[in-house]
Amino acid sequence: CALIVVLLVLGGAVSDATYLSLFNLQSMATQVPEIGLLAIGVMLAMCAGNGGIDLSGIANANMAGVASGIFALSLFDASASPMLFTVTFAVGCMVVGLIGGILNGIIISRFGITPILGTLGTQMLFTGVAVVLSDGRSVTIGAPDPLYALGNGLIFGVPTSFLIFVVIGIVLALILRFTPYGLRLMLTGANPKAATYSGFPSGRIITTTYAISGLLAGIAGIIIAARNVNVKWDYGTSYLLVAILIAVMAGVRPEGGYGRVINVVLSAIVLQLLSSLLNFTGLSNFVRDLAWGALLLCFLAVARFDLINRFIALRPSRRSPHAAE
Q1: Which helix (H) or strand (E) holds 238?
Q2: Contact predicate 211/102, CB 8 Å
């Protein structure tokens, strides 16, 4: 929270208060949800341990948007039946995203494939499916009023998509904090062998975790379509790096066993504020991508150094019992 305040003050000073205008704040809040939802999915996969990560998030979101868009357009005219079209498209996105997540979970839990390799494979699979379905072209969804309101509407001055993101974050935080699934997920990530011997259904937990991650990708696909009027297989090519960076910035342990949704939400807001600040200073997108890569390496190094220090602190001393005499 302190970093958010610092960035707001710094942005206001750099831009002569334009950065703090209501329109710019609303614009930044509108851009947070799609990448924030993918980052929460990455966090859940990391918490599962065993090198858990979901590299297929943005590919799954694009596939969900393309597949559901083509299906909804084949049934309804978006301008003639805007509500039916929007409901069909939204439900389709969530179903496709959920199926993609379940596929990831089965590949990892049932076949024992390393998560980074399994989700890298499905990333290419999902991208290929989207390319084949769309012939490599963008699919125009249009802007029916209900769908447009999801991506660009305001509720009491706050973007609707941002409120959806916050509500989803709160629900998932409560699930992880107060349900047996949340406890078992963290214990499985912290010590998979002990969890197995304790009788936890680790395979079911991992499949459920990646299924939730896929569902979040599907919801991100809805918001992407609502904001951009069309969907395409190669949208958000840099989102994977940014989602991982957000999760690491939020203190999620890449080794598994720890992660907090509220930290991921705040981290996504911080990164969006920083991204907009870099835009106001006139730096190109290439410099921004360089900054994201450098930040990711720095946070990983800091996390690794902290783990080493904890190990040294917890290691029993080898001093002789007579050394103090």
Answers
A1: none
A2: yes
